From TrEMBL:
<dbReference type="Pfam" id="PF17179">
    <property type="entry name" value="Fer4_22"/>
</dbReference>
<dbReference type="GO" id="GO:0051536">
    <property type="term" value="F:iron-sulfur cluster binding"/>
</dbReference>
<feature type="domain" description="4Fe-4S ferredoxin-type">
    <location>
        <begin position="218"/>
        <end position="250"/>
    </location>
</feature>
<keyword id="KW-0408">Iron</keyword>
<dbReference type="InterPro" id="IPR017896">
    <property type="entry name" value="4Fe4S_Fe-S-bd"/>
</dbReference>
<feature type="domain" description="4Fe-4S ferredoxin-type">
    <location>
        <begin position="295"/>
        <end position="328"/>
    </location>
</feature>
<dbReference type="InterPro" id="IPR017900">
    <property type="entry name" value="4Fe4S_Fe_S_CS"/>
</dbReference>
<keyword id="KW-0479">Metal-binding</keyword>
<protein>
    <submittedName>
        <fullName>4Fe-4S dicluster domain-containing protein</fullName>
    </submittedName>
</protein>
<dbReference type="GO" id="GO:0046872">
    <property type="term" value="F:metal ion binding"/>
</dbReference>
<keyword id="KW-0411">Iron-sulfur</keyword>
Length: 339
């Protein structure tokens, strides 16, 4: 199937009558995903959005339920967001990040109704990356600029049009509803060429990294690696796979609500116990945890690396910490098994 670029605003306008439609829109010097009221607002030419798509499924701050306690007892009220949504213009790395977050919010022990209701009711339309940024390294972490993992439809930019690839039943239903024309052989060939020409310039060699992390918890390399890090948490908030949160009650007298907020392992209070003990008192321990969580613990638990190589943490770190360099440094260090 194929859709001309000039028809995209009309296509989105039609979707808007049936769905809440989210797309990248311009904000200051970057783009973010926002609900759009007009197809013309979607900006599909920029690099990946500054904030990852995770916030549409796992918001930065979310009321889980409200409660009131009266003489008759306690009353809880909760609302799940079951609006039908289309997220248009998702890059493959962000789509894959949702597959990783599914392990966290939908597993044998726990199914998160807030996240899952949004996931079930959302169609993800991706756009492949013809020109990956210099900070991208998706191919080093089992992804790619045209990877369809997690998507329902993938659009491949062939110049004046997008060739549409159906990935899932949800995607098929949306494409049929849109009535896209069939792609000619020349269009399919142009899409194949675009895929071939897309170069992810940066490759990070992760060979042996997991084996190294399995044994180097006490390696002196950690003393050095974290030195520049300010512990600001920007990398964790902007990371599409970071998912730590805190839950607080906001209450006055007997009425209130329970709210879930993003948290960050970069912050000293993140691990502070009620007893006053804090198992991660230093920045070294916190930075080590960030790397360990993504490249060891998540792999141990889910057999997947919790990084999709989007490069946001590289682009946005105020002191230019580069996770690619950190990983190479860790991989190259000598393991120490003792404490
Ligand atoms: S963005 Fe940079 S300085 Fe801030 S916590 Fe992450 S690595 Fe450290
Ligand atoms: S660790 Fe950095 S490169 Fe990897 S997914 Fe998170 S923000 Fe992207």
């Amino acid at each position: 199937m194929i859709v001309s670029k000039k028809d995209i605003p009309n296509f989105l306008d039609k979707l808007i009558s049936d769905y809440q439609v989210f797309a990248p829109v311009k904000k200051d010097t970057f783009t973010v995903f926002k609900q759009i009221c007009s197809g013309k607002d979607a900006v599909l030419t920029a690099d990946n959005t500054k904030l990852p798509v995770k916030e549409l499924f796992f918001p930065q701050s979310e009321k889980l339920y409200s409660y009131s306690v009266t003489e008759e007892g306690a009353k809880l009220e909760t609302t799940l967001d079951d609006q039908q949504k289309v997220v248009f213009g998702v890059r493959p790395c962000d789509a894959k990040s949702l597959v990783l977050l599914d392990h966290v919010f939908n597993n044998d022990k726990y199914q998160d109704p807030y996240y899952l209701t949004r996931r079930d009711n959302t169609v993800l339309v991706g756009i492949g990356c013809n020109n990956p940024a210099s900070t991208c390294f998706c191919t080093s972490v089992n992804g790619g600029p045209f990877d369809t993992n997690g998507l329902d439809l993938l659009l491949v930019d062939t110049g004046d049009a997008y060739v549409v690839e159906v990935v899932s039943d949800k995607g098929k239903a949306l494409a049929e509803k849109a009535g896209f024309a069939a792609a000619a052989d020349a269009d399919k060939a142009a899409a194949a060429k675009a895929k071939e020409d897309a170069v992810v310039a940066c490759q990070v060699n992760l060979d042996g990294l997991k084996a190294k992390l399995d044994v180097n918890f006490y390696d002196p390399i950690w003393e050095k690696i974290h030195e520049k890090c300010l512990g600001c948490g920007a990398c964790t908030y902007l990371c599409p796979t970071c998912h730590c949160f805190d839950i607080v009650d906001d209450a006055v007298d007997c009425n209130g609500c329970r709210v879930r907020n993003w948290d960050s392992c970069a912050f000293p209070l993140f691990t502070l116990h009620g007893s006053g003990h804090n198992p991660r008192t230093s920045n070294k321990e916190r930075y080590r945890n960030r790397i360990m969580h993504k490249f060891k613990y998540f792999v141990d638990n889910n057999n997947e690396i919790a990084c999709v190589g989007c490069g946001r943490c590289i682009k946005n770190c105020p002191v230019n910490m580069d996770i690619r360099v950190v990983l190479e440094d860790v991989r190259g260090s000598e393991a120490r098994l003792d404490s």
